[in-house]
Amino acid sequence: MIKDESSNSKFKYLAVAFTGPSNSGKTTLVVKIANILQDTGNKVCIVKHDPKDKARFDHTGKDSDKFSQTGSDVAVISPNRTTLFKKNKSTIDEIIELFGEFDYILIEGLKTLPLPRIAVFRNKLDFSYFKVSNAIARDESINDIDIPNNIVKLDLNNPEEIIMWIDQNAKRVK
To answer: Is the separation of the CB atoms in 173 and 100 below 8 Å?
Structure first.
């Protein structure tokens, strides 16, 4: 369960999730939002759910891939980054702790997390997302009349509007 604690930290520790069908524009939207937030001096972290376990740690045959093939947890530390590859699932709380201090954590997927959630749609709605969504970011191809009134409607092509919604609705997690 995601913690919800008060803090006097200079960091915001705000979390929000994005959901939607494949190729709806989730990644593009998260990238736009992350870039805008970072350009205005915020520290942003991103978590991507990989339900089909397709993500690779390194290229086949490289040292870090060979290490990971042993079954061990592996950390690769370089001057500008740390890459961690664990052989077991981490909770969102563990990931939040790993990131340390941040202003925003943007989570793509993980529909079961108790977070404010924006569903992303282009070309067609998938009504199954309505029950887990607080807002819908849609483009002009979506008819607003098909979206229930209790779900906030956001313009997929207006990331600033979406950031305003995030600032008002995201959950403080640390």
So the answer is: no
